[in-house]
Design a protein that fits this description.
By secondary structure, the protein is mainly α. Helix content is 62%, strand content 4%.
C-alpha cells in the first residue's frame, strides 16, 4: 500500500463517520433528548467545516487547486444565485413590521446558513477518493437510519414523536421517509440493475411503510417509477436483458409486498390504533374531509392574498396562531407568505435550475433527487432547512460536475500568470464515472460516463 493511500485513510474514515452520523440524524435526536450540549446545527456546521478544511487549505496554498474550486463554483452560478436570492429576500422581508424577531436574527440568518451548507457540501466530493467511496458513506447512513426506524417498529415511541408511527433518529416520521428515500436515490445506480440496489429499494419501501407517511409513499412511488423506467431504458432493446431486469424488479416487488404484509401483521407499532392504519387498510379515505391540511392551506392562501408581493416578513408563518396551524406544510407557500413573490420565485428557480443542470450532465440520480425535493416541498415547509436536502444537493452537484460527458475536454487553468491545459494521459487506463459516481473500471459502461480528472 502506497504512503499516500495510508495518509488518506484517517481522512477517509473521518469523512465516512461525518456523513454516516449526520445523514442518519443521530446528533439531532441526541439534542432533542438533551444529551448534546451543543446545538445540532452548530455542531453540524463545525464538522462540515472540519471535513472540508483540507480542500480549503489546499486551495489557499496551491493556485491549481484554487482554480479548480473557482471553476467548480462558477460552473454552478445557476444554483448559487437562487440560494443568494433566498437569503436576500429573507433580509429584505425581515425589515417589515410584521417580521418575526422573537428569536433574534435566527430567521434572517437561516437562509445564509443553508447556502453555506450547500457550498461546503460541494467540496466533499472534490477529492477523487471521496467521490469513489461516497455511495458507501451514504449507504452507512442509510442503514443506521433504517435500523433506528426498526427499533421504533419493535418498541414504539423509542425515537419517534408519534408513538404509532416509526421515525427513528429523524424523530418526525415524514422527515424520516423523505431522508430514507433521498439516501436511497443518492446511493443506487440508475444505469444498471444490481442486486444491492434492488435490496436498497426494497428496504426503503419497508422503511417508508413503517413511517406511515402519505408523502413518503408518494416519494417512494416516484423513486420506484424512475428506477423501473431507467431499467427498461438502459436494457439496450435486448429482449433477454429486459426480461431479466423485469424479473428482478418483479421479484423485488413481490418480496417487498410479502415482507410488508408480515410487518403489518406482527410489528408492535402496527398493533396500536391509528387513523393511518385505517387509511392503509382502506377503511378511511387517504384525504379525509376533516383533514387539518385543508384548513392550513386555506389560512395560508388568506395570508398570501393579504401581502402577495412583499410578504409578511421573515418567520411570520411561525407566529400565526390557530387550532391546526403548525406552519403551512408547504415550502412554496411558506416562501410566499414570508418573503413575498420574490421568495417564491427563488425557491422555484433553485429547483428548476438544479433539474436543468443535472439533465445537461445526464445525472439521473440528480434529476430524480430534484424531483423528490420538488414533491417534498408540497408537503413540508422546512425543505430548505433539511440537512439531507442541502447536503445531498451539494455533493450530487459536484459528482455530476466531475462526471459530466466531455470529461476529456481540456480545462484551462491559470497558474502564476501562465495558462496550460490538463488532459487525461493516453498511456494508462482511467476510472470511469457512472451516473455521477466514479468506478474503478477502465472501460466505459452504459449510461453517464466520463473520465475522472
Amino acid at each position: 500500500m502506497r504512503a499516500a493511500t495510508l495518509r488518506a485513510v484517517p481522512f477517509e474514515v473521518a469523512t465516512a463517520l461525518f456523513v454516516a452520523l449526520s445523514l442518519s440524524y443521530i446528533d439531532i435526536n441526541l439534542r432533542l433528548r438533551g444529551r448534546l450540549a451543543l446545538g445540532a446545527s452548530d455542531l453540524y456546521l463545525a464538522l462540515l467545516i472540519f471535513a472540508t478544511a483540507g480542500t480549503l487549505l489546499r486551495a489557499a496554498w496551491s493556485a491549481h487547486a484554487r482554480s479548480r474550486l473557482v471553476a467548480l463554483y462558477t460552473g454552478h452560478r445557476a444554483i448559487i444565485l437562487p440560494l443568494i436570492g433566498i437569503a436576500v429576500f429573507a433580509f429584505i422581508s425581515a425589515l417589515l413590521p410584521t417580521a418575526h424577531w422573537d428569536q433574534g436574527a435566527y430567521f434572517p440568518m437561516l437562509p445564509i446558513y443553508d447556502a453555506i451548507v450547500v457550498l461546503l457540501a460541494m467540496l466533499i466530493p472534490v477529492d477523487e477518493r471521496r467521490r469513489r467511496h461516497l455511495r458507501w458513506y451514504i449507504g452507512i447512513a442509510f442503514l443506521i437510519l433504517l435500523g433506528s426506524i426498526g427499533v421504533d417498529v419493535v418498541q414504539p415511541g423509542t425515537f419517534s414523536m408519534v408513538e404509532f408511527r416509526a421515525a427513528g433518529f429523524a424523530t418526525n416520521p415524514n422527515v424520516a421517509a423523505f431522508v430514507l428515500v433521498s439516501l436511497c436515490c443518492a446511493m443506487i445506480s440508475f444505469d444498471q440493475v444490481r442486486v444491492i440496489d434492488l435490496g436498497a429499494v426494497l428496504l426503503t419501501g419497508l422503511g417508508v411503510l413503517a413511517t406511515l407517511s402519505r408523502a413518503g409513499a408518494l416519494l417512494f412511488a416516484f423513486l420506484l417509477a424512475c428506477y423501473c423506467y431507467r431499467a427498461v431504458q438502459t436494457s439496450q432493446v435486448k429482449l433477454s436483458r429486459l426480461v431479466v431486469r423485469l424479473v428482478g424488479i418483479g421479484s423485488m416487488v413481490a418480496v417487498a409486498a410479502a415482507a410488508g404484509v408480515a410487518l403489518v401483521r406482527q410489528a408492535a407499532v402496527f398493533q396500536l390504533p391509528s387513523s393511518r392504519l385505517s387509511m392503509l387498510f382502506g377503511r378511511t379515505p387517504v384525504l379525509p374531509a376533516d383533514d387539518p391540511r385543508a384548513a392550513v392551506f386555506a389560512e395560508s392562501w388568506r395570508l398570501i392574498r393579504e401581502a402577495p408581493l412583499l410578504g409578511h416578513g421573515g418567520g411570520y408563518s411561525n407566529r400565526v396562531a390557530g387550532e391546526f396551524w403548525e406552519g403551512p406544510h408547504n415550502v412554496y407557500l411558506q416562501q410566499w407568505i414570508n418573503g413575498g413573490l420574490g421568495g417564491l420565485v427563488c425557491i422555484v428557480w433553485l429547483l428548476v435550475a438544479s433539474a436543468s443542470v443535472f439533465f445537461r450532465r445526464r445525472s439521473y440520480s440528480g434529476m430524480v433527487f430534484t424531483g423528490l425535493a420538488a414533491i417534498q416541498g408540497f408537503f413540508s415547509h422546512s425543505l430548505l432547512d433539511e440537512r439531507a436536502f442541502l447536503f445531498l444537493l451539494g455533493v450530487l452537484l459536484t459528482t455530476s460536475y466531475f462526471a459530466a460527458p466531455g470529461a476529456a475536454r481540456l480545462r484551462r487553468v491559470a497558474v502564476a500568470g501562465r495558462s496550460f491545459a490538463r488532459a487525461p494521459s493516453a498511456t494508462r487506463p482511467h476510472a470511469v464515472a457512472v451516473d455521477g459516481m466514479p468506478s474503478r473500471s477502465g472501460s466505459p459502461r452504459q449510461g453517464n460516463t466520463r473520465l475522472s480528472p
